[in-house]
């Protein structure tokens, strides 16, 4: 049976992982998490959690468009993060 929600503890763990060593990433990723995470599909939520396991230089490179993740799910999620932040004026 597929779990269709995240417990408060799991969500807190993901929120903690949003905190990055690079201020720009911290702002971009935390804002997306706070405003969009609950609306993601379960697959996107899992992908978001695993995306946070990457290093700051990789994430920054993907978010500024310098390179793209080879993982399609991560690449599509980064597109959503970029789109959200552009709409917010960041």
Automatic annotation (TrEMBL):
* Compartments it resides in: Cytoplasm
Instruction: Tell me, in one coarse class, where this protein mainly resides.
Output: cytoplasm
Q: Name one GO biological process term.
A: succinate metabolic process
Q: Which InterPro entries match?
A: SDH, SDH_sf, SdhE_FAD_assembly_factor
SUPFAM superfamilies recorded: YgfY-like
* Superkingdom assignment: Bacteria
The terms describing its cellular component in GO are: cytoplasm
What does the record list as coiled-coil region(s)?
A: none
Swiss-Prot/TrEMBL keywords:
Chaperone, Cytoplasm
Q: What family is this protein classified in?
A: Belongs to the SdhE FAD assembly factor family.
* Name under which the protein is recorded: FAD assembly factor SdhE
Output the lineage of the source organism: Bacteria, Pseudomonadati, Pseudomonadota, Gammaproteobacteria, Vibrionales
């Amino acid at each position: 049976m597929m779990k269709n929600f995240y417990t408060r503890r799991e969500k807190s763990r993901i929120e903690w992982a949003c905190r990055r060593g690079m201020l720009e990433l911290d702002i971009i990723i935390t804002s997306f998490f706070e405003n969009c995470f609950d609306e993601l599909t379960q697959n996107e939520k899992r992908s978001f959690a695993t995306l946070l396991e990457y290093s700051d230089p990789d994430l920054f490179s993907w978010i500024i468009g310098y390179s793209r993740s080879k993982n399609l799910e991560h690449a599509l999620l980064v597109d959503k993060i970029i789109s959200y932040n552009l709409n917010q004026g960041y």
